[in-house]
Specification:
six-stranded mixed beta sheet, 10 strands, four-stranded antiparallel beta sheet, mainly beta
Length: about 120
């Protein structure tokens, strides 16, 4: 399993970023995928998840109305569009093949850093 996240960076509060994750080593089209994040000194947090056909979509309360998850099964990618970013969104973001209830044990790649600061 290989998961390569990209798209992070430094953004001002209220700004937007689009994260992307390229997956390989498993049958992506049959996998429920999630984005998770970890802020310094804090536990890993589940952010959003997406079913195999993009019909089942779930968000943590902190992400609802601001983040949009999507996937492209032809390209084996899962994206996270983030808008109206806040300082509390600062974290390292990872994509995982996992649900909201088992993400802590999931294999994850190096992630991508998102820093929201003025």
């Amino acid at each position: 399993v290989q998961l390569v996240a990209s798209g992070g960076g430094l953004v001002q509060p209220g700004g937007s970023l689009r994260l992307s994750c390229a997956a390989s080593g498993f049958t992506f089209s049959t996998a429920y995928m999630s984005w998770i994040r970890q802020a310094p000194g804090q536990e890993m947090e589940w952010v959003s998840g997406l079913g195999t056909r993009g019909i089942v979509v779930e968000y943590a309360d902190s992400a609802k109305g601001r983040f949009t998850i999507s996937r492209n099964n032809a390209k084996n990618t899962v994206d996270l569009q983030m808008t109206d970013l806040k300082s509390e969104d600062t974290a390292r973001y990872y994509c995982v093949r996992a649900y909201s209830w088992n993400y802590k044990a999931a294999v994850r790649g190096q992630g991508t850093q998102v820093t929201v600061s003025s």
